[in-house]
Amino acid sequence: MQREEYQRLVETFFQWDESSLLEIFKELLKAVAAADLTGSMEMMSQNYETAQANPEIQVLPGNLKDARDAIFPYFWGTDSWNSPLHLENVRGPANHASLIGAFACLLKNPNLCTDRYSQRSNELEVKAITALANLIFYHTQDPWGVFTIGGTLSNLYGAKIGLEKVIPGAMQAGVGNQRVVGICSEASHYSNRTVAGWLGIGTQQLISIPTDENLSMRLDLLAERLEQLYQDGIKVAYVVATFGTTDGFGIDDLLGIRQIIDEISQRHSQPKPQLHVDAAVGWTLCFLADYDLQANPLEFSPELLDIVARAKRQCEGFRHVDSVTIDFHKMGRGHYPSSAFIVNRRSDLRYLSREVSDTPYFSDADARRDPALFTLECSRPALGPYIVMASLNGIGLTGWRMLVARSLELTEKLKRGLEQLDYCKVLNRGTIGASVDWWVLPKGRNAGAIYDRLVSGQLPEAERQRYFAEVKRLQEKREIMMDRKLDARLGFTTNYGYKPHGIEIPAWKAVFFNPMTSDAIVDRILYSIEELT
Ligand SMILES: *Cc1c(COP(=O)(O)O)cnc(C)c1O
After folding, report:
1. The pTM is what?
2. What's the pLDDT tens digit per position in 280-337?
3. Does any ligand 1 atom lie closer than 6 A to the CB of residue 191?
4. Which of 320, 336, 307, 333 is nearest to 277 (CA)?
5. CA angle in degrees (0–180, nearest 5) for 310-316-317
6. Which of 221, 247, 264, 286 is the most exposed place for a label (fewest CB within 10 A)?
7. What is the CATH number of domain 404-532?
């Protein structure tokens, strides 16, 4: 072995050299600032053609700048969505408190599998989970949970607990040939199908209950379906309620669902299904749960106060659920990955636990502290806890209330503006949240009347297809005509969630995620629509 070469290698890549690190960090920061300055940066075009053909690896040991150069074109070619004109989806700039947290975490690189591998970082996870649980469940006694890489995985944890509750020992013996189902709403996220597939119950055993116009699961249909399932001898492992559907921000009636599943399962002498809430998008409304409407310290307008009052009522439902998915990397404006799975009662985690003998190299693990004894993953990043605690405490409860309220305010502004236009129809008028789904039809059409005929089943299919094509065509036209320095980028969905008579409805979509999005940008959206048609 060439000792000197080896020594240089170790010094370059494993010993602290603050000045070389700082130099490169500064360059990266400058590149981000430059991209921001150009406003709506046109991304570098992609080069997939040779990404596979030329996966080069440098031969000789290099230095930290080689590391920089290896990733720089991809870094530069990635739009961070920092621009306040990005309204397509729940993505945008992560907050800088989160950056500090994430950065600190990377410097220590703890592994949250057990206490021994992470020391105080495990403690930070307990703290972060408890802080979020107090915010969500409100007066919870005994919450617990873990950070995962995303809402999909957090939903998987909830479903798995349900499966173990209704088929004890499924973890060891499997589900055999018992028919077992999960339930969600038609407007729920597709990850629920992923989960049913990966869990082994099968995507076809995931039952979707239609929603009402506000994208909220129809309780009458839930009750009917549950009754039928139990009569047919089918086991119901879990119900996933959604708190904030991805496109339209529909919220399920959590208490209503709780009462129905408890009552019907009991009547059939069946174990209660797990009531899991997918609040990946909607959880930040809980920051408003104890806003003092009377004193109104943040001087919300009367319209906003009204929305906040409704949000407060919706949040009360969390007290009645078993577990919840929270994506801090969505409306928490934190870095990826920072999703949390939280149970209201810690004892529910026993359904996931494995014996110390199943994890031989964690032989000193203690089930009270070491998550590896029940998590799906083995190694786990600590980014989530660092991101969450830095963000919650940097921004503070009042700061969070302002951020959430501002999203609601801009959403309402756009909804109201669109309502002034006869040829537009706001589809998710009754939901509380950060997103707007709507139609734009050619001038002269009465969008509201067309919608009413669709919902009442009086719109012939040919006519419907013509209108839906117009909605899509106008969206494409705006994409072509837009001034990328001034006009917001909007999203488009082929199915915003409500399906009257089983019909999927397309919609234009805007999500107020970026705190820098202004009233002027909303005015400009309305102007661009008027110019378009
Ligand atoms: C985004 C989303 C998910 C999936 O979360 P990931 O973090 O992207 O895996 C699940 N449910 C809802 C409602 C979502 O919006």
Report:
1. 0.97
2. 999 999 999 999 999 999 999 999 999 999 999 999 999 999 999 999 999 999 999 9
3. yes
4. 320
5. 105
6. 221
7. 3.90.1150.170
